[in-house]
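Researcher: I'd like a structural prediction for the single chain below. Treat it as a standalone chain; there are no partners to consider.
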Amino acid sequence: MPGQKSPKPHYAGHRARLRERFLKSGGDALADYELLELLLFQALPRGDTKPLAKALIGRFGTYAEVLRADADALREVPGAGDSVVAAIRTVRVAALRLMRDEVMEKPVLGSWQALMDYCRSAMGPEKTEQFRLLFLNRKNMLIGDEVQQRGTVDQTAVYPREVVKRALELGATAIIMVHNHPSGDPTPSQGDIDMTNEVKEAAGKLGIVLHDHIVVARGGASSFKSLGLL
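Model: Treating it as a single chain, here is the predicted structure.
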């Protein structure tokens, strides 16, 4: 009828109620798919997001695993277009930056577990190898965090001279090397051991200490120092 208001879509009230529950009780009061719905509200301002949220949880298992999923895997879920992928990846990046802030410019020994958690979260889910350098000053405070190399599924080229050069540029007196094993097994390979020894020797000649080399994977993490390899 002319002049009559169109009825509000059924999802409008649901969105308001879900936001209210979150604001009153916090995230612990919501199921994984409901937290994901809240996130999807930002990407999809209209429409019912519950089916897509449940489909994503069904595909990846948990809210955390949805955040860890790469863009191509997310797009395999019907309805997960670029706006959805961008929203999900933005939350992951924000979480990683919060974790990094917890360890930057702090003594490494006092925040070692936080550092390990950050490395595992940042690199563990990756499908290709990455080589990361953590730079420390004389007080063993973390002053730099950089991904130096990205490789194929099972290898990345590491050049000791480039590692030492970057440490000198930043005024670092010590470094921690980190790389991931996409296979899921964090056990160091013989190639990892040989490369570590080469970097240790090159750095030592210029007074730069290699504190540790950490291998991370979805299945855990290995420390060369803990294993007696350094």
